[in-house]
Specification:
By secondary structure, this protein is an alpha+beta fold. The protein has 6 helices and 6 strands, in the order H-H-E-H-H-E-E-H-E-H-E-E. It folds into 2 domains: 1-75; 85-245, Alpha-Beta Plaits, CATH 3.30.70.270. It has helices spanning 2-75, 85-102, 116-123, 125-142, 166-182, 212-228, and strands spanning 106-113, 148-153, 156-162, 198-204, 234-236, 243-245. The protein has a 6-stranded mixed sheet with strand order 2-3-1-4-5-6, with helices on both faces. Helix 4 (125-142) crosses helix 5 (166-182). The radius of gyration is 39 Å and the shape is rod-shaped. The chain starts with a helix and ends with a strand.
Length: 249
């Protein structure tokens, strides 16, 4: 009886252990199922997160492009598509102060289309606008990559020449003058000189100049002298002997 009782007790323990093992196996299965569900949720979350990151990068690229376009529009002259007066003055101020601080070469050319009112009166304002756009393109094409070309106002343009001494300024100015003189414009034979031409005044930064306005004033005075002396020429002043010239280079 004792052996039988012991055997029954042992069988009961085994059954309890088997039941316990089954419960644990079931619990493990349930936990495994839950883990797989959570893992699938995590993978889905990661995919969604990657998609959102890519969407954010795409929107950021679009925003940068819009901001760059707005910046370009804000500094560009609507008609000629070169720099506008506001940017030109801002950049001139920066470059002037930098030249003054570090003793760098810099020059400024002021350019005015000769008898532009006559051209407008003979051909109309639309043709005048086309001439302004053409002149702006010719100036831009005749300058160096480092030069800053802008529309100062009306038929007047300005060119900031960085690291340019007198000789380099004269070379660029003559290239511009000759290019425009040799370019045909509609009905230019009606101009007082038979051609559409430009006059230019140039000035180099010098130690006596305290402000950006001194450089502009100097270049302006040279421009007025070029026009008084017959137009279609370059006049230089500002720290150098005054002269008006057609250069041959």
């Amino acid at each position: 009886m004792t052996q039988k009782a012991d055997y029954e007790v042992l069988e009961a323990k085994i059954r309890r252990l088997e039941k316990g093992a089954l419960r644990k196996e079931k619990e493990i299965g349930e936990w495994k199922h839950r883990w797989e569900e959570k893992n699938r949720e995590l993978e889905s979350y990661n995919r969604e997160l990657l998609a959102l990151k890519e969407l954010y990068r795409e929107r950021a690229r679009e925003l940068r492009a819009v901001m760059e376009k707005l910046e370009e529009v804000s500094i560009t002259d609507d008609l000629t598509q070169i720099y506008n007066h506001r940017y030109l003055i801002s950049r001139l101020h920066y470059e002037f102060e930098r030249a003054k601080r570090y003793g760098l070469f810099m020059s400024l050319i002021m350019l005015d289309i000769d008898h532009f009112k006559v051209y407008n009166d003979n051909n109309g304002h639309l043709a005048g606008d086309d001439a302004l756009k053409e002149v702006a393109g010719l100036i831009h094409g005749a300058t160096r990559e480092t030069d800053i070309v802008g529309r100062y106002g009306g038929e007047e343009f300005a060119i900031i020449l960085l690291h340019a001494d007198l000789a380099q300024m004269e070379e660029v100015a003559e290239r511009i003058r000759r290019t425009i003189e040799e370019t045909p414009f509609p009905n230019e034979d009606l101009q007082p000189t038979g051609k559409l031409t430009v006059s230019m005044g140039g000035s180099c930064f010098s130690d006596g100049m305290e402000t950006m306005e001194d450089l502009i004033r100097s270049a302006d005075e040279a421009l007025y002298r070029a026009k008084r002396n017959g137009r279609n020429q370059i006049a230089i002043e500002g720290g150098f002997p005054e002269k008006s010239t057609h250069l041959h280079i």
